[in-house]
Specification:
6 helices, Four Helix Bundle (Hemerythrin (Met), subunit A), mainly alpha, two-stranded antiparallel ribbon, single chain
Length: 199
Amino acid sequence: MPENALSEWIFRIVYLTGIVAEIVIRAPINRRRHKSKVVVSRFDRQEGLLLLLLFFGGYFMPLLYIFTPWLDFADYVLPTWAGWPGVFFLVAAVVLFWRSHIDLGTNWSPTLELHENHTLVTRGVYRYIRHPMYASQWLWTVAQALLLQNWIAGVGGIVCFALFYFSRVAREEQLMLERFGDEYRNYMNRTGRILPHRS
């Protein structure tokens, strides 16, 4: 097998391993979350479409690319070494994703909702940024474009997540402001959304 083809398969396996890692990280928290009563839900058509877009760009198209030749027409070629920074970004994304879930616990939800005992988490990684899980997904999309060198499965992930992020984050912060008021407003003043706040 040529070196390029071998590297391409290594990078695809790394990407699949990342998907499995995220599922394993999220599964126990998701189970515990269902035991808590939802008191506020902002799930609507827009929210449903955004989640579908996220699934499409981060899972469906990459898996279609990895397991079928259907998207090969949209391939691009980077130097073989370019995939290795992708491995680094993917590992960093998974670590930050894990840390975010550990710190957030059952306060996490895939949709815009608040639970009965919802608290404002400002410890751990949340001490520095308000949305570390979104930060992890930005790292993931960069990794995706380097590991899956395809305009639809690779770069398409960045496009899908960008549409999700810029449509979702303001709505999420509005929900938190309604629930926590000045406490969240003060928290916003001392933290950045996905990068640490510069003093």
